[in-house]
Amino acid sequence: MKNLFITFTILFTSSLIAQTHQIVKHDGETIEINFIKNENNLVYYTLPKSAEEKTISQYAVSQLNEKSKSTSEVISEKIQLNGKSDYKKVVVLKKHQTKGLKETGLITSFYSGTKGETPLSFIDNGEKRLKQNAADKGSQFIVILSNKPKNLKAAIYTY
Question: What's the superkingdom here (predicted)?
């Protein structure tokens, strides 16, 4: 009887401890998860029947729903681009921060600096040029692969 009581207690408390959440992505997909944390532009989680820690870009996640309390937390707002003029909305990410986003291609450009331009301003103007090209193609995110004179290159991502 004592063993039966202990078994039921463990089963009951483990279901209370499990953090059952639901991720709603910007593309409409939902995923049942156990939420761990949100840090460094990534959402850390495990799948319900797994202990393996996984990550997804916080930019791919619209909201996090906690099932036990019926509460929702907005993780990121969807970025809407209306052409090249919205280049300031384009976000520069690192490659590991793109999980859950779709790579839609590569963009290339060139930027020849003016005489006396500092290396820092060249990098800023090269990034601006890549963001403008990404916004023109409707991609909200870029990963800069090369920011060298006459060889600007970035991978573009969307939801």
Answer: Bacteria
Helix boundaries (H) for the chain: 2-17, 119-137
Annotation: CATH topology of 84-158: Dodecin subunit-like (3.30.1660)
Query: What CATH topology corresponds to 18-74?
Result: SH3 type barrels. (2.30.30)
DSSP 37: E
Q: 56-68 burial, b if ≥16 CB within 10 A, otherwise e?
A: bbbbbbbebbeee
Rounded Cα distance between 31 and 9, Å, is 29
Position 3 scores a pLDDT of 61
